[in-house]
Structure formats: structure tokens, C-alpha cells
Amino acid sequence: MIEVKNVTKIFKTKNGELTAVDHVNLSIQKGEIFGIIGYSGAGKSTLIRLLNGLEKPTSGSVIVNGLEISSIKGKELRLARQKISMIFQHFNLLWSRTVAENIAFPLEIAGVPKEEREKRVHELIELVGLSGRADAYPSQLSGGQKQRVGIARALANNPEVLLCDEATSALDPETTDSILRLLSDINQRLGLTIVLITHEMHVIRKICHRVAVMEAGRVVEQGDVLEVFQNPQAEITKNFVMQVSDSRESKESIEHILKNYPSGKLVKLIFVGNTTERPIISYLIKEFQLDINILHGNISQTVNGSYGTLIVQLDGDSENVEKALEKLKSMNIKTEVITND
Ligand SMILES: Nc1ncnc2c1ncn2[C@@H]1O[C@H](COP(=O)(O)OP(=O)(O)OP(=O)(O)O)[C@@H](O)[C@H]1O
């Protein structure tokens, strides 16, 4: 659906050249929600603007739905852009127009006749959950409602791709969740391909299927969200994953745990997918006659399944402790022994 091939974008500034996007390759499938995460200045906005032709690459190419966006211009680009729409952090609504008039705006530009326009606006208002607010002005709406108008407007011309530029960064956590649920729902109902940029890992965890991590213009890691959460490679990815697990906290508490549980073995178990749903601890207790203390744990959901960690103290016959560890490995549960007694 979207192919980014060896794309570099260099800006000429008064202090010299600045490489905002550096040899990026991405392949985004039709119907997926693809997240791009990075800290401020990583090059995310530039990359997303390359996807709809608002920026041209210095080298490389961007192909969306078979069309080479990076090389077309004028009317051809304008038409292509109707199929690649965008929502923004600060909504970019027209303040003197009502909800219905904002949503109708792209339809007017596309030359859709009045009657058809009104019908479509009505459908879109229902779709994004704004029934009854058609005649309200943006200033009368909450942040979440404003973003719903932004989403309805972006969907007006039946796009194939929706680009989201920090779409929930100005919203509180609960409103963020409701907007993420709406995006996920639209993705499933309409089969719409969504590319979002964010600096918040919980946005990636909650709705993305795959993720690319950007640092200094480069994609340093990309893959299935569950795999990246389970096994982050780059240092920056590990930091992002820490945002949504409490491993930082658990690191601090490990010393305390070691002091207080000196016998047996302290083991961190890493569960993924359906292993999180099995009664493993009770099985180990029965099978290997162990005492097991659960000291710390968390489980998180991603679109592709759940993952979690558990820090346990395994106490009992040392041979049986070893057997239990072997058993865990055979059940596809990663184990890390924190210390030996
Ligand atoms: N039009 C431009 N001219 C010059 N430099 C630019 C331009 N646009 C972006 N940059 C620079 O390119 C780099 C990447 O910026 P970009 O906005 O893409 O990053 P970002 O990851 O989206 O960060 P943020 O979330 O802060 O916008 C930054 O150093 C920025 O200053």
C-alpha cells in the first residue's frame, strides 16, 4: 500500500544542511495501523509529510497505492491527496464554520453536489459519534469532539490512507483512549490504512499492528508491535517500552526483593500471547513441589496479543527448581534468573 524506498530529506538552513529523514525504508500494508514513534526532532513529521507529497524527498521514492507521490505534481497530486487525508494535533478546524460545515468543506472542494454532500455529512457525523452537534461551532466543543470533527472531515472523500500527526497529544488520557478506539473502529469497519506518528508508546501499544522507531532521521527498529514490546533491540526502543511497563520501578525494587527473599531463586518470567492466560504458577507448584512467591507482575494488551512479566521466588529442592526452569523454557516462557542463592 505504501512503499518508502531509501528516502532522504535534507533541509537547507542558514546553519547548513540538516538531514531530517535519513535513508528510510518502510513497507506499510493495506488495512494496517502502522505507528511511527520517536522523540521530538526525530523526523516523524517530515516523514509523514513525505507520504502525502507535502514534502519532496531529496532522494528516494514514496509510492502510495501504486502512485509515485514523490514525483507527481499539480492536479495529479491534488487528486491523489484526496485519497490520503490527515488529522492533526491541534485539529486545524475552521472556527467560523459549524461542525457540519467543517466536515462538508473537503466535499465542496471536490465538487460534490449539495444534496449528496448533506447526506454524506450526516453519515460522517453518526460515524464519529457527534450526533446532535452538527450546528455547534468548534469553540463549543471539547478537545475530543474537535478531533472527532477532524476525523469526520478527513474521511469525507473516502480516503485510502489516514495520516495522524500526534492526533491525541493534546488530549487527556481518557479522551485519548476514546479517540484511539474510534480510529481502531474505523480501521476495522472501513479497512482504512492508518499511519500515525506519536511520541507516546501507549498509543502504539493500544492500536498499532506494527511500529517503526525513529531516531535522528533514521528508522532504528521496526516490526510487529508485540515482538518489539517483548524484545526491544535499540536503546531508544527499550526506553519507549519502559514508558508503558513499570520495569523502571521493578528495577528499583529488585534490590529490596533480593534482600528480603534470600533463599531459592529469583526469576523473571516473560510471557507472550496465549502463555499469559495459562495457570502456569499453580502447575509448577503441584508438579515440582515448590513454594512460589509472586513478587511483582504486570500484563499489557497489544493489538496482536498480550505480554507480561512476573518476578517470582522459586523455593524448594534445587533439582526441582532447575526442572521447573527447564519446563518454563519448553512452554515458550522466557526466564531470566535474577540471582543465585
Ligand atoms: N522546513 C524545514 N526547514 C528546516 N528544518 C526543518 C524543516 N522541517 C523540519 N526541520 C528539522 O528537521 C528535523 C526533524 O523535524 P521533524 O519536525 O520532522 O521532527 P519530529 O520528530 O516530527 O519532531 P516534532 O514532534 O518536534 O515535530 C528537526 O531538526 C527540524 O528542526
UniProtKB/TrEMBL annotation:
Classification via Pfam families: ABC_tran, NIL
Gene Ontology biological process terms from the UniProt entry: amino acid transport
Keyword terms of this UniProt record: Amino-acid transport, ATP-binding, Cell membrane, Membrane, Nucleotide-binding, Translocase, Transport
PROSITE patterns: ABC_TRANSPORTER_1 (PS00211), ABC_TRANSPORTER_2 (PS50893)
An annotated Gene Ontology molecular function: ATP hydrolysis activity
Superkingdom field: Bacteria
Boundaries of every ABC transporter domain copy: 2-241
PANTHER family per record: AMINO ACID IMPORT ATP-BINDING PROTEIN, METHIONINE IMPORT ATP-BINDING PROTEIN METN 2
UniProt protein name: D-methionine transport system ATP-binding protein
